[in-house]
Amino acid sequence: MTDKKIFGVTALFNDPNAIFAAAKKVADAGFSKWDVNSPYPIHGIDKAMKMKPSKLGIVTLIFGLSGAVLALILMWWTMSVDYPMIIGGKPYFSLPAFIPVTFEVTVIMATLSTVVAMFAFFFGLPRNSHALHDTDYMKKVSRDHYGIVIEAMDPKFDEKATLLFLKDLKPLSTEIIYHPEKETYPIFEPRFITLLFGVAVVVSIGTYLMLNKLMYIVPFDWMDKQAKVIPQTSSEFFADGRGMRLPVEGTIAKGFIPYPFEGETNPTEVLSNPYFPTKENLELGQRKYLTYCSPCHGNYGDGDSRLAGQFPNPPTLHSERARNFPDGMIYHIITVGQNVMPSYASQVTRDERWAIVNYIRALQRAKNATDSDLKFVKAE
Amino acid sequence: MSTDYSVEAPVVAGRLTIAQIEELVAKPMDTKPDKKFFLALTVSGSALLIGAVCLLYTLYYGIGMWGNNQPVGWGFGIVNFVFWVGIGHAGTLISAILFLLRQRWRTGIARFAEAMTIFAVMCAGIFPIIHTGRPWLAGYLTPYPNQHGLWVNFTSPLVWDVFAVSVYFTVSLVFWYTGLIPDFATLRDRTSSKIKKTFYSIFSLGWRHSSRHWLHYEKAYVILAGFATPLVLSVHTIVSFDFAVSIMPGWHTTIFPPYFVAGAIFSGFAMVVTVLVFVRKIFDLQNIITIDHLEKMNKVILATGMMVGYAYGMEFFIAWYSGVQFEQFVFINRAFGPYAWAYWIMVSCNVFFPQFFWFKKIRRSIPAMMIIVLFVNVGMWFERFVIVVTSLHRDFLPSSWGMFTPTLYDAGILLGSFGLFFTLVILFTKALPVVSIAEVKAVADGAQPTHHRGEHHD
């Protein structure tokens, strides 16, 4: 027995008055690591034991207040910053309407934090391996006895002297409590770890299914699923097995009249510019030019885009050659392309092509402005 | 727990010693259940099963199986929800409010009432979720970051409800469990079965009945009670907002919050009495749940019943006084329209029958109080029926008036909710101490030092 580590000595009483008096004496004797165990709280024992009042309220206060603040911030952010929406003519930050939720969040934060802080941090529970568990002493104080325990950790503890001191208090019985011989840590047992692992797997799968499957079950699908042919699907109704029909032979899509000069080099005699360079037309041309042409030819047609050097250099549009092109020629180049320059027929409509031509003409003239041109600019 | 001792009738009758109290309370857990237990479980389990089948049908075919229609979109789903949330309120009132008011007699019934709160809120919580018709989408009710970029509408009473009911459930559960921990420790130390011991050890968290712990524990209890009190008042207030914030005639009234809270306590106490009468008999707890306790509860029923009666009268008065034609019509329609039978069931059960509790004889007679509290239970269910259905079925436009007829599935699910409630209650009586052992021990005669706080014992 002597090689066992001693935990402390205990004394049992069966009268609340006796334990009260005994507790006073132990406190007066100056012990610090000692305790009174009783099946229910004894009134005034805290004073007899000289304990300080509980500071648990501070935890409640801090977490309660942060609950209120967090709730308000969340509601303010979701309702007036992230997805502002006017509901019932109320302001985005509608304090009266936010009070119920603020209150509820405050309550839940305050209560949960209090309980968790008390058990986990104040008491160090759960703890089923304490030396007092499974002793006769514990069984008695759990039922209808009152006990005093003085721990060996106490600086004033001395096995014999302390035991005598307790006996002097006239208890029913005294007992020496030892630490359990072998300390066991059930949390490291393979079975427990397997259990934890199992719980983790089940929770993860559950969460995954919940968030990714359950919440995405389509609530109404009767508009999705109708007895009709959806584009790009097959159909047994038609001989060719296709759900979509081909247009009648020779149909021309709106705005896509075939270009008759494909393959010709200079159809300029027939192609004449139908638009005057009005302000509106030039602005349209500018927009389209900046979108479709400037990436290669540069913003002012100088051929100085950032592609210069990486691509067969797009030529300047201010060359002698380009300035002498008739309008129809530029139109033709946009429509069918020229060597490496691809056709822009599918991006810009016919009207827009003419507008671009007018704009290029304006650019060309601006580069080679005469004094008479400047007069007009100054006059404006 | 730190109650002030005045000269009051002893809380525990029959001069039980502390060990005897423990013996009595722990008996159901130490013995094998008898035939009566299984019989009761069979009855409640069958009801639960019927409800489950009806619910499965509803989930498969949709809420078209119910009587809900246009204009009565809120049928039994909401009626039952409000009813069950109300039942729950008694538990918190007994455990928290009476605790703060230093009513020692609450110790005998607090644990049971708290358990009933939790079970009632579980029953209640089912209804709004199945009422949506797509219960699997209930996750959308929580504000969680999602790819739709959507949040819940925090200005809507329905969202407040989600918060209120879930917070209420959580706090009640925590409160209940905190109270159970010392009892788990006591059971752990008295059992000889290894399985039970493991179970109790886990749930007792290794509680050691240490006075250094009791100090904080009592403080925590006060804090929890302090929060549970405004919480319980807020919950039914918010439930009443579901109605009062709308503009329906008969709903849009400021009396709703206090009226709902009073009604909740009224119906909850009636339910607690209903169940306790059986429990104290079956488990021989007459000395711990005494007739004095029941009498006090009957007094509360009488008081809250009159508050509810006042609210009925005041609603009528304000409807007339407001001069709003629609309000006036709704109330006249309630009392004399096609649903007049429901209205008069409500008035007679809630206002008339509780008046018998003015007589001390009736307050202390078990059969008499049994009949009255059953009436109150029925009456309070009809109150919610009247509020929900009569306001909706005839509102502003006569062209859109209609009638509501519940279907068998409605009835089955209501029955099922009772089945769930009583099944849980029955299982609880066998699995956990129905009375708080530690709390009752603390108020037994001779349990406290005599010189403390001027308490005198022979």
Fold blueprint:
The complex is a heterodimer of chains A (380) and B (458).
Chain A: E1 6-13, H1 16-28, E2 34-37, H2 45-48, H3 56-82, H4 95-122, H5 136-141, E3 146-151, H6 159-168, E4 173-178, H7 190-212, H8 279-297, H9 320-324, H10 327-336, H11 350-367, H12 371-379
Antiparallel strand pairs in A: 1-3, 1-4, 2-3
Helix pairs in contact in A: 3-4, 8-11, 10-11
Chain B: H1 18-30, H2 35-61, H3 76-100, H4 107-131, H5 157-190, H6 194-204, H7 211-244, H8 256-282, H9 291-322, H10 325-336, H11 340-352, H12 360-363, H13 366-393, H14 408-431, H15 437-443
Helix pairs in contact in B: 2-14, 3-4, 3-7, 3-8, 3-13, 4-5, 4-14, 5-6, 5-7, 7-8, 8-9, 8-13, 9-10, 10-11, 11-13
Characterise the protein shown here:
The complex is a heterodimer of chains A (380) and B (458). With 380 residues, chain A is of the alpha+beta class. Chain A folds into three domains: 1-184, no CATH class; 186-246; 267-379, Cytochrome Bc1 Complex, Chain D, domain 2, CATH 1.10.760. Chain A is 45% helix and 6% strand. Chain A is built from twelve helices and four strands, in the order βαβααααβαβαααααα. Chain A has a four-stranded antiparallel sheet with strand order 2-3-1-4. The longest helix of chain A is centred in the first third of the chain and has 28 residues, at 95-122. The model of chain A has no long low-confidence stretch (mean pLDDT 86). Chain B is mostly helical and 458 residues long. In chain B, helix 3 (76-100) packs across helix 8 and helix 5 (157-190) runs antiparallel to helix 7 (211-244). Chain B starts with 17 loop residues before the first helix and ends in a 15-residue tail after the last helix. Residues 1-7 and 453-458 of chain B have low confidence and may be disordered. Chains A and B meet through helix 1, strand 2, helix 3, helix 4 and helix 5 of A and helix 1, helix 5, helix 7 and helix 15 of B.
